[in-house]
Amino acid sequence: MNRVHQQPPVALTIAGSDSGGGAGIQADLHTFAAHGVHGTSVLTAVTAQNTRGVTAAEAVSEELVRAQLDAVLADFPVAAAKTGMLGGVRLLELVAEYGQDDRLPNLVVDPVMVTTTGDSLYAGDPAAYLGGLGPLSTVLTPNLIEAQLLLGRAIATVEDMREAARALATYGPRAVLVKGGHLERGDAAVDVLWCDGQMLDLAAPRVATRNDHGTGCTLASAIAARLALGHPLPQAVAGAKVYVTEALKAAADWHLGTGPGPVHHHHGRKSAAL
Ligand SMILES: Nc1ncnc2c1ncn2[C@@H]1O[C@H](COP(=O)(O)OP(=O)(O)OP(=O)(O)O)[C@@H](O)[C@H]1O
Ligand SMILES: Cc1ncc(COP(=O)(O)O)c(N)n1
């Protein structure tokens, strides 16, 4: 047996738990593992959730979030980090405190506010995201609804998405990816990336599936994993989009739960049980 394995880079997810395993910290750790990246995690909230929705949620205390961050950052060479559900302004500000002085390098900020099933995962002023984490973000990844909440204006077309990305970039992130998964139009799933002063449209074939739970978490984690692996930012985002499209395709026929189910994070790999 070949016992020589290269040491993996380390990524960190700061997110909530999804008991259904399709989104949140579970999706993030799957995605890191699928990329050959060692995943560390800081749990911000526990949700009781399945493919039909969220039935309960409780925030982890600030003290415990702080202790998790201290434990991970004191001992692991974190090469990239990702935030998901932060629940409210207090944890957002706490994470921003740790983001100072480049302690959370290559920071991907997914401003999780509402789930696909319509449940709210953020209580607070959306603008706090831009003030608190905007300038610390390597890339900010709002979906259509989140971009609308952040900017307080309607976004209905790809051109609106481009304008939104430009407007969000004025708050300080190096790049903004406005995701168009919820723009139910045409055969393509189009996201727009504003990065280093350039606009890029990232289009993928729209997969005919109801299993799209956790695609936003998966995309943001795949970007963080690729940044940890040393990919340049635009390539990390474009590669992550291809990974999500393949994960959607591979799970299109799954029936895990009666609502929108998870995607296949390990589509590229054989089972370890083989
Ligand atoms: N049916 C689909 N086919 C192909 N790509 C898709 C599909 N649905 C979503 N995507 C892609 O998945 C990624 C996540 O997009 P989306 O806009 O759904 O984010 P999100 O709302 O944060 O995700 P989530 O559903 O986890 O909340 C984007 O790259 C988007 O284009
Ligand atoms: C803990 C947690 N974090 C994030 C999401 C967003 O994912 P989705 O919108 O696909 O439900 C979620 N449902 N649960």
TrEMBL record:
Residue ranges of domain Pyridoxamine kinase/Phosphomethylpyrimidine kinase in the record: 18-264
Catalyzed chemical reaction(s): 4-amino-2-methyl-5-(phosphooxymethyl)pyrimidine + ATP = 4-amino-2-methyl-5-(diphosphooxymethyl)pyrimidine + ADP; 4-amino-5-hydroxymethyl-2-methylpyrimidine + ATP = 4-amino-2-methyl-5-(phosphooxymethyl)pyrimidine + ADP + H(+)
EC number(s) from the headed UniProt entry: 2.7.1.49, 2.7.4.7
GO molecular function: hydroxymethylpyrimidine kinase activity; phosphomethylpyrimidine kinase activity
Enzyme class: transferase
Keywords assigned by UniProt, alphabetized: Kinase, Thiamine biosynthesis, Transferase
One Pfam family of this chain: Phos_pyr_kin
Listed pathway(s): Cofactor biosynthesis; thiamine diphosphate biosynthesis; 4-amino-2-methyl-5-diphosphomethylpyrimidine from 5-amino-1-(5-phospho-D-ribosyl)imidazole: step 3/3
InterPro entries: HMP/HMP-P_kinase_dom, PM/HMP-P_kinase-1, Ribokinase-like
Known function: Catalyzes the phosphorylation of hydroxymethylpyrimidine phosphate (HMP-P) to HMP-PP, and of HMP to HMP-P.
The name this protein goes by in its record: Bifunctional hydroxymethylpyrimidine kinase/phosphomethylpyrimidine kinase
Phylogenetic lineage: Bacteria, Bacillati, Actinomycetota, Actinomycetes, Glycomycetales
